[in-house]
Amino acid sequence: MPIISNVTVQDVRFPTSLELDGSDAVNVDPDYSAAYVMVTADNGEVGHGFVFSCGRGNEVIVSAIESYGELLVGRELDDLVADLGAASRLLVHDSQMRWLGPEKGVSHMAAGAVINALWDIAARREGKPLWRYLAELSPEEIVRAIDFTHISDALSPQEALEILQAGQRGKEERLRELEQDGFPAYTTSPGWLGYSDEKMVRLSKEAVDNGFDLIKLKVGGEVESDRRRMRIVREAVGEDIKVAIDANQRWDVPDAIEWLQQLSEFNPWWIEEATSTDDVLGHATIRKAISPMKVATGEAVHNRIIVKQLLQAQAIDVLQIDSTRVAGVNENLANLLLAKKFDIPVCPHAGGVGLCELVQHFSFFDYAAVSGSFENRYIEYVDHLHEHFAEPVVIRNARYQAPKKPGIGAEMHANSRAQWTFPEGEGWQEVGGRAAVSGAEHKHH
Amino acid sequence: MPIISNVTVQDVRFPTSLELDGSDAVNVDPDYSAAYVMVTADNGEVGHGFVFSCGRGNEVIVSAIESYGELLVGRELDDLVADLGAASRLLVHDSQMRWLGPEKGVSHMAAGAVINALWDIAARREGKPLWRYLAELSPEEIVRAIDFTHISDALSPQEALEILQAGQRGKEERLRELEQDGFPAYTTSPGWLGYSDEKMVRLSKEAVDNGFDLIKLKVGGEVESDRRRMRIVREAVGEDIKVAIDANQRWDVPDAIEWLQQLSEFNPWWIEEATSTDDVLGHATIRKAISPMKVATGEAVHNRIIVKQLLQAQAIDVLQIDSTRVAGVNENLANLLLAKKFDIPVCPHAGGVGLCELVQHFSFFDYAAVSGSFENRYIEYVDHLHEHFAEPVVIRNARYQAPKKPGIGAEMHANSRAQWTFPEGEGWQEVGGRAAVSGAEHKHH
Prior knowledge:
2 copies of one chain form a homodimer. The first copy, chain A, is an alpha/beta fold.
């Protein structure tokens, strides 16, 4: 019986702040980073996982992953893999660690990375990419993986089971369809706040030429500037292309309503993170005020309990799950089923580093076995840093192509990790720690 | 001009799990701990702060405090102390660190400890305990310390100013009253879930003999056991003593309602943490169902944005602020003013280690300059681990007596910290790491 022999963590950071890729109204200078974990058993099996972050503070997530890792070392791998629901609860509900959240922030993300590494092993053992591994589990097995604590008033295990049983009908056909045509993508690459108008227009047109029918712009700097940017993008792409906007939690509720009223003439497809993602009631108020503009959020929603309330309060039109914010695959299964229960489409958040590679699996599984629909459903796509992964995402005809490699998609090349280990990796030596210095300078503004 | 020369952090833990002090339905074996920080300037000034935790994972908070500390080293102390609102925003809204929360969990608590250490220096400079230092600031200075981001729809700076201006009337009289008679306390010491019925009854009677008119029992183990415990305590203390109950987030919404209906005959004064403190809507549903029983929560509420919603949704009758969960003094000022705006009494959470010493300052300030009322207002009191602090709380006639020493009350004796530094302190050597081992064994159940 294989035993977990060690859990190793690396602090990997990319100096993206040098180019202002990924800049928005709140994240002005991110260095896209991964607190990267490998769970290794004494028979040589390895599972990969990570938490995405924006640079400074990645070392704190590393510390948290190490602490959760200690709870696993010495355990029998087969037991963990045989009941990934129990494995998740073991970490998430650890009686002492729970105080660190509960179920939120650094500790929750760290637990999620370790849990995901166990799912990675489970999927590798079956020789399947995660999405197919999940789609081929029985409804009962999926239900067993989910922690219904504090969501059972909105979604009981029985209701989840019924949703999944209904999802079995036509599944084989949908699996073939996914293998052949993939899943719709939208792109955020044109619209970073740090880009010039010219670059934004050029990239928007390129995106449309490449077949995208939904693109996204960052907003929330200055209202006049947002109006100008929306106008020139509208002029460049026409009325038939959907243009979503994203404020990255920049506004208070009254500001959001006022600002969005000034942008409504450009017909934004959705407004993303109009205010704090903790603010369920605020999102509901905004949604009512700006209808029929759609309201989207989720990338910073810290657990299924907030997702539940966003749905109960009719606060959102689009749920944007994130692959490394919550407690791993298990909690995103809960989120997908909650969304289905409330008939809200899931359009995952991606970008950063590795988020596209991970999160695509959830949409593929969602289509195969839960929602069965592409309607108003897209996976976010951003075109950088994919080259560092064992299986970079493939976009063809503006659609994610089905991942094929066994596992959850988290594996980053060993040499990429070594090169960009912070601060001692060669890559950081070569840029002379410039991005890190820029970070340090930021504090003087 | 003094410059911050270093920020040092200690991992201090007490082996409380050996005695089951502090045991409840969720926290079954806490080792009360402090991630303890000292912010030191090159002129020798030192500010103290800490985050309370339950043992395992304290090292993660230590790591987070170190990271926030790096943002302070080299800065001019006078600038920070002169504008503690700006100092708070510098840490809480750091553009890269923000991703770790935002404003929740490990990172938020860690930022709070560092911010509190700066308030400690500010109060020491004036030679005043925090509560009096705050009470003697002008309304404008208090407003300047508060971050209204994402709460301005419920409390604008102007409304806050008006509340504080109204609080100036009669303040001097109330300050004298506080100095003389202190602030009402309630006690949780009788009711830990790990205690025998006999011990619980004996401690309940002692509490009443000592003048307490509100005591609290932990519930949420088994409903029959809870009914028995409430019955025998009611019999022991009579009908005139208020008995609050605390489920520590043990229930889902439907369970909470059913369980509380079975306890209502014993007339509980409030039900605390009936469900997840993330669940604003769930608390509102429970409150409606069990009225007129009061609903209380707050010790695990991670920021002012959730507090705002609990109030907006009419989900609570009692707000239980915690001194080390949110981003320091600043955010608790926001919480006090939000509670006043919605006319909800604040009954702070305390216990653990050092939480009584810290949180009392907020109630004293609240009475002096915000609410001006003792009605339905109590500070929680638990009678252990006070001897480790430079100024242990003093309870007389079941009331907290006004703290006198300059600062925020966080300072723990250096020898206590050394003795209980985990794992190398002498104290831990003497108990043979037993509590830690008990923690490690927990994972096999």
